[in-house]
Amino acid sequence: MFVASASKGANVKLGGLVEALKAAARGKKLATPEGVTGELAEVYDEIQRLSKKTADLNEEVAKLEQNAGTSSVNVDEVIEALGRAASGERVRAPAGAKPEMARIYAELSGVAEVVRDATKDADKKVSLAEERASAAEQRAGSAEQRLQSLEARISAAESRAVAAEQNLATAEQRASTAEQREVQRKSELAELLATVESDVVDAVQRVAEGERVRPPPGAKPEVARIFMELAQIGERLTQAEQREQKRRAELAEAMQILEGEIVNAVQRAGEGERVRAPVGAKPEVARIYMELASIGERLAGSEQREQKRRSELGEALGVIDEYLPRLGDGLGTVLASAEQATAHARDINASLSSFSQSIEMLATSAEESSSSILEMTATSDEVAENVGELAASVRETVSSIEEMAYSIREVAKNVDGLSLTAEETSSSMNQMDVSIDQVQSNANETARLSEEVAMDAEKGAEAILKTISEIYRIKESSQEAVSVISNLGFRIEAIGQILAVIDDVAEQTNLLALNAAILSAQAGEHGKGFAVVADEIKELADRAGGSTKEIADLIKTIQAESKNAIAAVERGAHNVDRGVEVSNEAERALKKILDSSQKSTNMVRAIARATVEQAKGSKQVTDAIGRIAETVQQIAAATAEQARGSELIMKSAEKMRTITQHVERSSQEQARGGRQMTSSIEQISAMVNNLNASQRNQNRGFEQLLEASKKIEEAARIQEQTMRQLGNAVERVRRSIGA
């Protein structure tokens, strides 16, 4: 918008200058417009002085015409004499010429002398102008070389941008391939679970029945490992049953022996013999023998106390009967608790197995996400590097434009010098021919310079178009980066959902641990060991919950950073759009400058042709001098306008450089954001691996807990059978005493 308004104001000012120059060529008086200051006011002052000189010149020409009319001067002869005087030859009046004609020829003779002197000065000025033209050509050659170098660098930047686009396409292909692999793995896992579920259930039933299981032919390694574990479980169950049967046989045999010994001891105590417990007898059996020994001693003491001893024996047996049911109830409670604990341990073990699978899947997803993020970070680094190279190319372009502006200012200085030369030449009609030749030569040179300026403007417009194309490519890359980051945000949200499931499992595990702690407290002394295990389970559940919360916090942080990265890329895209608008306005300004240069060139060429034709007479010479002065002023104004246009180009180039710097900083921020995301994903992957290791340790602990629960259950059953046999023995003793 700023460039467009500046270009519009420049066109208005240029139109005013052209009208002023036309009025000055006609010798009209001019006034400086209101609001004109600085260099433009000085230009109007120069135009006013030119207008005054043109008016004086027109007056002289009018006087000459009047004299020519009154004296019947032969204009053709005067023009011929004027041409010879302009070439430096001596001019004499023809014989019989009138006094007015003689005075004209005398003046032309003086003009010839002045022309000879002026020719020497003109030769010096021409040589100086040639030197300046040579210097200008050298500068133009240098500018052309720099422009070619700039085009080469822009071409290199385009090739780097194409490479960056190819890298982005490769990254997208890799991401698509990774997603396809993930979908394929999930489908294969679902098919595997659907296929293996029925086989594993059937194998578990056969293992429970004591059969030996083997993996089906052609089974995958994971299925084969499951069947091998089931086979090991079946072997352990078979061994446990064999040990149980052996223990029962040994216990039955021991109870038979103990029953016989107790009956024998009771009979001997009844007969008054002293009874002692066998060596190595258990405390319960030893207490029974002690009671029998006491009874025997009391029986041996006196027959009169026989009834009392029997009653005491009955009381002892009553005490035994009283404690045996309580002990049996306690053993029943222990057995029930052990069975419940075993069942809970099995459920927890199954839940932990599912949880372990989820953790492993999470670890796999984290690794794949880490690889995708690494690829995206590498791509972002390449884009940032290409943007940096583009920024360097833009800086070099700005430097070349500055040099071009310097060349334009030098041309303006040369044009000012040309204007002074034209004013000096037009001060005297005696140097009219020389002035016309110089004006023609300078006009041609100015036309050439205008053409060069037009060519430079066209090249500048092409460079701006290429810059706009590169900026559009950067914008497309930014939009692709936004898409990639958005997809990453969706995947992070999916991880958050998985973490919610993990958190629920941790809460359920905590509740199960609390239930186990309550059951262990109810079991009393027998549940202390189980209480320790329950506390460990609760601690592991708390730790798992804490880790889940930390991971959730990290995911929230990553999501926030992803949003910030998207916002930064969108701001960069907005800056790119602004850069495109500014570049378009600069392109339009260059086109206007190009049109003005072409118009100036056409005008200069027309003036050069007119000067040759107008050298036929004094009036024509006078008009040509006025036209030359007007042309010189127009050239000076056009050069000044070109200088101002170059300043606008400089401002646009500065804006382009600033926008490129913003884009470069945005690309660097995007690269840093990608590296931060890579670090965060690596931390998440490490945490998931630690969680997986902790879960495996927890699974081993629950397996040990399951084994301990089974052992407690077996011991409780054996103790229950022992108490039943002891109750039977007491009943037999009571019957024998009653008999």
From TrEMBL:
InterPro entries: Chemotax_Me-accpt_rcpt (IPR004090), MCPsignal_dom (IPR004089). Residues 40-67, 119-181, 241-268 form a coiled coil. The keyword Transcription regulation does not apply. Pfam families: MCPsignal. Keywords: Coiled coil, Transducer. GO terms for molecular function: transmembrane signaling receptor activity. Residues 393-629 form the Methyl-accepting transducer domain. One of its GO terms (cellular component) is membrane. The keyword Ligase does not apply. It comes from the Bacteria. GO terms for biological process: chemotaxis; signal transduction. Belongs to the methyl-accepting chemotaxis (MCP) protein family. This is Chemotaxis protein.
